[in-house]
């Protein structure tokens, strides 16, 4: 990965457009799904397949469900039920169905847990830059999380996309009149935030999260042309550049 050199102090870029991912960039998200999956695998207690094999089958179920029904907790619930039906010899009774669904209750019920220094960093950035949230998923779930996070006032616009691909980023850049040279996509997912934004000619800032969802894993592309790529260790490190 090629990184731009750290500018000396006092050389922050002036007035940029910052497109900011939400899940696992601003707040914890995937850890709640991982807890539900751990509970599900334990409940399934498969006598032939290992936990890893069950997890791989669940990943395949999730890919299929998302393709048919989009992202969100409702799709995740459907994937757990599908996985149980495929792998268990037991019939899925109403009791078992309810038990499996209960593993996901905590996902929507959790308080929004902001990642370190996110609120103070956004508060600082929005004084000098234009901030647009660019998240993907279920519209109601994502907007509900944003309202509960208390971060809505820092953003001049919010985009909830069905999928983050180069065409979606080009569309956002066009609708918000973003100059690619002064526009940056900031996020934790190579597959959704970094690679498709760079493919659309937008600069990117990769902030890895230790527990990024396995379906978001991808090798970070090398930037082409004038596109710039940075990798930072935390959200607060943005203040060194912007
Ligand atoms: Mg994310």
What does this structure look like?
This protein has 242 residues and is an alpha/beta fold. The protein has two domains: 17-27 and 112-240, Rossmann fold (3-Layer(aba) Sandwich); 31-109, DNA polymerase, domain 1 (Orthogonal Bundle), CATH 1.10.150. It is 42% helix and 12% strand. The protein contains nine helices and six strands. The protein has helices at residues 30-44, 51-69, 73-87, 94-102, 105-109, 118-125, 139-149, 166-175, 190-199; strands at 17-20, 130-136, 157-161, 183-187, 203-206, 229-231. It has a six-stranded parallel sheet with strand order 3-2-1-4-5-6, sandwiched between helices. Helix 7 links the parallel strand 2 and strand 3 (157-161). The protein is elongated. The two termini are 21 Å apart. 31% of the residues are buried. The model has no long low-confidence stretch (mean pLDDT 93). Residues 21, 23-25, 187-189 line the site of magnesium ion.
